């Protein structure tokens, strides 16, 4: 059993404070390439990743709601966009799989990621020029974590609180 992988998964935390250090485009391409390996129906890959570095755009996105403020602090923002027209029945699950592959691979190479609830935020879609038929799934802040930043400890439900056997009862 690979306990190190289980520890890796349990220790990942959202990061909302970053160093003023750029993230190389080749590294971003590698992370997206890893994301393209996520499980998805018929290998249709119904997603796009918008890489955002422009300070004005990050500032506009950071004002979407209180939980989005860290977008301005990160050297890079990533918008993850679903394409229902590419895979009508499974695009949502497929896109979330790819997003998690991206997030976990970023963590694996020492980057921090903050996840912003931006599902179908019309203001964000307008800022980013996302077509009406595409779906903004999430916005991610991305960068090298500020060593002074201490994420809140995570508490989770026990397995007994979420397991059902055989059927819903």
Structure write-up:
Keywords: Membrane, Oxidoreductase, Transmembrane, Transmembrane helix. The chain crosses the membrane at residues 98-118. This is NADH-quinone oxidoreductase subunit E. Helix 2 (25-35) packs across helix 4. The two termini are 32 Å apart. Strands 1-2-4-3 form a four-stranded antiparallel β-sheet, sandwiched between helices. The chain has a single domain (3-162), classed as NADH Oxidase. The chain contains six helices and four strands; from the N terminus they run H-H-E-H-E-H-E-H-E-H. By secondary structure, the chain is an alpha+beta fold.
Taken as a percent bin, the fraction of beta residues is 15-25%
- Tally of helical runs: 6
Specify the structural class.
alpha+beta
The CATH architecture designation is 3-Layer(aba) Sandwich
Q: Low-confidence parts, pLDDT < 50 over ≥5 residues?
A: none
Number of strands: 4
Name of the level-1 CATH class = Alpha Beta
| Residues in helices, as a percent range | 25-40%
For the termini, the CA-CA separation is 32 Å
The biggest sheet, with number of strands, parallel, antiparallel or mixed sense and barrel status, is: 4 strands, antiparallel
Integer average pLDDT: 96
List SSEs in N-to-C order. HHEHEHEHEH
CATH superfamily: NADH Oxidase
The Cα radius of gyration reads 17 Å
Compute the number of structural domains.
1
Widest β-sheet, arrangement of strands: 1-2-4-3
Brief summary of the model shown:
About 35% of the residues lie in helices and about 15% in strands. It is an alpha+beta fold and about 170 residues long.
């Amino acid at each position: 059993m690979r306990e190190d992988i289980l520890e890796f998964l349990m220790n990942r935390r959202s990061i909302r404070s970053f160093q003023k250090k750029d993230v190389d485009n080749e590294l971003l391409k590698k992370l997206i390439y890893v994301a393209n390996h996520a499980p998805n129906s018929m290998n249709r890959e119904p997603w796009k990743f918008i890489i955002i570095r422009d300070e004005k755009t990050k500032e506009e996105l950071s004002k979407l709601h209180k939980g989005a403020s860290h977008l301005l602090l990160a050297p890079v923002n990533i918008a993850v966009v679903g394409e229902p027209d590419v895979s009508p029945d499974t695009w949502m699950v497929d896109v979330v799989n790819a997003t998690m592959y991206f997030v976990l691979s970023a963590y694996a190479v020492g980057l921090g990621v903050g996840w912003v609830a931006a599902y179908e935020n019309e203001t964000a879609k307008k800022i980013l020029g996302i077509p009406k038929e595409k779906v903004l799934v999430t916005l991610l802040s991305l960068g090298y974590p500020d060593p002074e930043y201490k994420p809140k400890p995570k508490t989770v439900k026990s397995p007994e609180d979420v397991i059902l056997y055989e059927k819903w009862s």
